[in-house]
Amino acid sequence: MVDITPLRHCMEGAIPSPIATCAPDGTPNIAYLSQVQYVDASHIALTFQFFNKTRQNILQHPHAVVKVVDPHSGSSYRLHARYLRTETSGPLFEKMKAKLAGIASHTGMEGVFRLQGADVYEVGRVEAFVTAAKPVLPPNPAASLPILREASNRLNASCDLDDLFDTLLAILQQLYGIAHAMVLKLDEARQCLFTVASSGYAQAGIGSEIPLGHGVIGVAARERTPIRISHMTSEYMYGKAVRESAVALGMQLPLETAIPMPGLEQCRSQMAVPILAGSELYGVLYVESPQDLRFGYDDEDALQTLANQFGWMARGMACQAAVEPAAANPVSTAPVTALPEGSPVQVRYFAADHSVFLNDDYLIKGVAGAIFWKLVRCYCDEQRQQFSNRELRLMPDLGLPEISDNLEARLVLLQRRLVERQACVQMLKTGRGRFMLQVSQPLIPQPEC
Question: Any coiled-coil ranges, and where (predicted)?
Fold first, then answer.
């Protein structure tokens, strides 16, 4: 059986691939493909967009020859393939649909490039017909097993969820040279993903949201498959249009509570990788670059491996925290000895969606908003500063979700959002599963309808 894995880099779309077919009477036909997708060691998928001569030929005589070209050396290969089936839904179809949308946006053909199906072929033979001298390429860290091992060891040394997020972003930057990345957590109840951590952006965008199924991030989450686009595309530049997209999809987010999504103004390559723990979706790891063809199949393999380890570790940390016994030394409930001075800040809380404003500045909403409101009430009513994750988990009025959508992730989100906003309230770690509020101005709780 032929193995086409060494030719994956020839299927990035940098050089268009022609396909040759013939009618039952032997009449040949050649057409150019929008996309050749590597499926596995012996299968490829081709875009089915039009009911054209190629499609007619394949349905009557299921054999074709596809030419692919190495974009680095110019070496060319003929893939002798046999048509098997057409997929019109599922991960493979959605991955190719997202890539095609990127190509269409890049070429101004949004109204023409519409994927009708993903045609799956079995490759029976590979023929090299133009062999060029191999160029000297810089080493690719994504293809290095020692680097992957180092990355795995760093993840494994993380002490808590907050550290795990920082470690993953540091690995991408230091070991893989990926400067722009974000980690998004799934909100199962609201069917969206929210940004928990990011690196490389002027604004971190902590708390920004994307609906499930929207863009490469949302589709990668919904289909639980990596999606990679190597061409500049306006359709998937989240930072510019996420608010309008969310409203169009029925989320009806008020603008004052829509946190702008971080993103590059000139994104030319992007990849979204689902974070999984077995079949359970934890979230999405998203990376982007201003370079064309920045992320290849090796990068996809490496990041999916890291994302899977991250998913299991995050899941394990959530389960451990949920069953952790009470600490030997109880959290101090002693009142605050020195109250802050300065201009008072109104903490406005809206119960409908648990959104919180500091004066007129939006802070957070949802479960994280409910947690923050509870902390502020305890601070103001009881003059308490010290808290534990465990006591929050046991508070029935918070209505916390199950372990799969855990408290720890919401606390990390809240703590990072407070830092990003340079708020007058900060959450400081004081030990394992413990934290304190650091308040720099007087707070006035103000519940509103």
Answer: none
User: Token digits for 410?
Assistant: 């919401």
- Separation between Cα atoms, residue 307 and residue 354, nearest integer Å: 31
Q: Taking 80 as the threshold, does the pLDDT of residue 326 lie above it?
A: no
pLDDT averaged over every residue in the chain? 85
Residue 385 C-alpha from the chain's centroid: 35
Alpha-carbon Rg for the chain, nearest whole angstrom, is 26
Q: For the chain, give the longest Cα–Cα distance.
A: 93
Place of tokens 């070209």: 69
What whole-number distance in Å separates Cα of residue 98 and Cα of residue 378?
47
- Tokens 């019109």 correspond to what residue? 88
**Mean pLDDT, residues 86-114 taken together:** 70
d(CA 195, CA 96): 25
Distance between CA atoms of 361 and 282, rounded to whole angstroms?
30
> pLDDT band at 239, cuts 50/70/90?
very low
Indicate the length of the chain as a whole number.
449
Using alpha carbons, list the distances in angstroms from residue 107 to 34, 115, 141, 234, 353.
Answer: 11, 15, 31, 11, 41
> What pLDDT is recorded for position 341?
79
* Cβ 421 vs Cβ 361: under 8 Å: yes
Cα(220)–Cα(94) distance, rounded to whole angstroms?
8
Sort strands 28-33 and 434-439 into parallel, antiparallel or unpaired: unpaired
221's enclosing H/E stretch is helix 215-223
- The count of C-alpha atoms lying within 13 angstroms of the C-alpha of 268, restricted to the half-sphere facing its C-beta, is 6
SS3 95: helix
Angle, helices 161-174 vs 407-420, to 10°: value is 60
Whether 159 and 94 have beta carbons less than 8 Å apart is answered as no
What does the pLDDT average to over 416-438?
92
The answer, yes or no, to whether residue 302 has pLDDT greater than 60, is yes
Q: What does the CA dihedral 183, 186, 192, 197 come to, rounded to 10 degrees? A: -20
Cβ atoms within 10 Å of 28's Cβ, excluding its own: 10
pTM summary value: 0.83
The amino acid at 241? A
Distance CA 221, CA 281 (A): 7
- Describe the crossing of helices 407-420 and 297-323 by its angle, rounded to 10 degrees: 110
**Per-residue pLDDT for 271 more than 90?**
yes
Token digits for 52? 């054209």
Separation between Cα atoms, residue 121 and residue 33, nearest integer Å:
14
Q: What is the pLDDT of residues 206-238, one digit of tens each?
A: 999 998 888 889 889 998 999 888 765 444 444
Pairing relationship of beta strands 425-431 and 434-439 according to DSSP bridges:
antiparallel
